[in-house]
Design a protein that fits this description.
elongated; 5-stranded mixed β-sheet
């Protein structure tokens, strides 16, 4: 019998079969719904392997495919990962504490957690939860209220009343945790956590699905762990598949970066797809 996680993955993989017929807009919306906490990108990389026959995954988790042959040899990549959290401890009462995973530049990044719905990616599938907030009545007048909320203040309730209940949900130490999300389209914009990285990868996927002509050989890589020190995912691709005559990282203009309302414009995603097709073909 398949676990809940396996069943969900089968459904996800099955839905990828028709992606080659979809527009870059549809891909951007689908990719925007990904949860890819840095270092825990495997479910999405599994899907990319199913989408692109001939693609391979290296030991670190990068998914790559080579187009064309000969010189010049070039690399185009996009980072899959996002900053998030992992389970740091499980209390006897069934609460979770968190530790942040992935580099961020927004000093208020962790304040988005307070009182919000989250998803814990357990071994049996996503587990919904909520981050508790301080009692206004019990904390009134205390200096602690003046300090910014951080991940160290987070107590996550997943509906469990004991550590055994948590284990039964498939939640373990170091299980990845992220804000619950649903990509929101408004006008020509798409808003979601980490949508900048994900929509850039959607543009790269769309460019690859268009079967572009290549000048020489081009390695297309969806890289992992870009938010860890020294960007080990990209460094691994360069070390294993290089040297390269030229490299390009797919990126988009982003509004409200590193927030739950991070936004990209679909016009920019479409333009990026076209630039990537041209670059793969040898245009400067």
């Amino acid at each position: 019998m398949h676990s809940a996680r396996s069943g969900a993955l089968i459904l996800l993989l099955g839905s990828w079969a028709s992606l080659s017929a979809q527009s870059v807009d549809s891909l951007a919306l689908r990719f925007a719904g990904f949860t890819t906490v840095s270092g825990y990108e495997q479910p999405v990389s599994d899907s990319l392997l199913a989408l692109f026959p001939g693609a391979t995954r290296d030991r670190l988790g990068n998914v790559s495919i080579t187009l064309g042959s000969g010189a010049p040899k070039r690399l185009v990549s996009c980072p899959l990962d996002e900053a998030g959290y992992v389970v740091g401890a499980i209390t006897a009462e069934g609460y979770l504490t968190l530790r942040r995973d992935g580099r961020v530049t927004n000093p208020l990044f962790e304040q988005q957690l307070e009182g919000q719905r989250i998803a814990v990616l357990g071994t049996s599938g996503p587990v919904p939860g909520v981050v508790g907030v301080r009692s206004v009545h019990l904390s009134r007048g205390r200096a602690a209220l003046d300090a910014p909320f951080t991940a160290d203040d987070a107590w996550v309730d997943v509906g469990a009343t004991s550590a055994a209940d948590v284990a039964a949900l498939g939640v373990r130490l170091l299980s990845p945790v992220a804000l619950a999300r649903k990509a929101l389209r408004y006008g020509d914009g798409v808003a979601a956590t980490a949508v900048g990285h994900h929509a850039a990868c959607a543009a790269l996927a769309a460019a690859l699905l268009s079967r572009p002509k290549t000048a020489g050989s081009v390695v297309v890589s969806f890289t992992v762990q870009s938010l860890q020190q020294d960007n080990p995912g990209l460094s691994s691709v360069i070390a294993l598949r290089g040297p390269f005559a030229d490299t390009l990282t797919a990126a988009l203009p982003v509004k409200y970066p590193e927030t739950a309302a991070e936004t990209v414009m679909l016009a920019d995603v479409r333009a990026l797809e076209q630039r990537l097709v041209q670059w793969i073909g040898g245009a400067k």
